[in-house]
Amino acid sequence: MFDLKGRVGLVTGGNGGIGLGLGRGLARAGAAVMVAGRNAEKNAAAVAELRGLGAEADAVIVDVTDAASVQAMVDATVARFGRLDILVNNAGTNIRNRPEVYAEADWHTVIDTNLSSAYLAAKAAHPHLKRGGAGRVINNGSMLSIFGLPFHIAYAASKGGVVQLTRSLAVAWAADGITVNCILPGWIDTDLTRKARVDMPQLDANVLARTPKGRWGEIGDFEGIAAFLGSDASAFVTGVAIPVDGGFSVQG
To answer: Please, what's the b/e burial string for 21-59 (b: 16 or more CB within 10 A of its CB; e: otherwise)?
Structure first.
């Protein structure tokens, strides 16, 4: 049920962090993986790592905020591997500031990168996902679709939108054999959160105190959820948002 041999996954922002963890999960389950990212050097390193796991892998440069670039990304994936079965909308960014001084340009950057990109990629991928008969879309949301924080107004709004986009696409595309689900990462050890720990010195202690698992998440924690949501094991699961947070979101 978890076997992805013969299937092809495309992971935006797949050259590091959570995206690389999700790509590893697809690769370990047997899928070919296209890594999509802006940085050619990081793309190449991710491809080498995935190939080291025995997977077919390649990379494409993309600007996920540009519809033409997103379409070219999907076209390149199908040209390279002959099909597209699993789309992982992982690309994201964050610009922190208080709402009353938040710059309009920063708002649009975060919304376009985190939310609009997921819509553009899903739209471009839809005919290929439908053609395969068992398409899978995995969107990367956040705990901030549940909670609010004062310095994350655009990020929280974008990730709340990702959850609602997930639900709407799940309903719209169920008849096409496509499932659409969302993961909600907790506090994960990535480049973004390392910077946050510098900006907010109390963050590390607060996260460890509230997380029942007693640690920060690691990108390897996303391998299993990728294999599950990308495979036939989740064929009757659609429209849901699944926390991957060590219990943070259920701790009172």
So the answer is: bbbbbbbbbbbbbbbbbeeeebbebbbebbeeeebbbbb
Query: What are the structure tokens assigned to 156, written together?
Result: 């929280």
Per-residue pLDDT band for 252 (boundaries 50, 70, 90) equals: low
Q: How far apart are CA 70 and CA 65, in angstroms?
A: 8
From 21-30, 90-99, 179-188, 192-201, the region with the lowest mean pLDDT: 192-201
- Kindly list the structural domains of the chain, giving each domain's residue range(s) and its CATH number in brackets, ordered by start: 8-244 (3.40.50.720)
Q: How far apart are CA 241 and CA 225, in angstroms?
A: 12
For the record, the structure tokens of 185 come out as 């990462």
Token pair recorded at residue 250: 């259920």
Average pLDDT, the chain: 96
Q: Annotated active-site positions, please?
A: 155
Query: Which residue type sits at 79?
Result: A
C-alpha of 198 from chain center: 24
Strand-strand pairing, 57-61 and 86-89: unpaired
Stretch (H or E) spanning 139: strand 136-140
Contacts 24+ apart (CB under 8 A), 232-238: 232/1, 232/2, 232/3, 232/134, 233/1, 233/2, 234/136, 234/179, 234/181, 235/134, 235/179, 237/179, 237/181, 238/170, 238/174, 238/179, 238/180, 238/181
3-state secondary structure of 93: coil
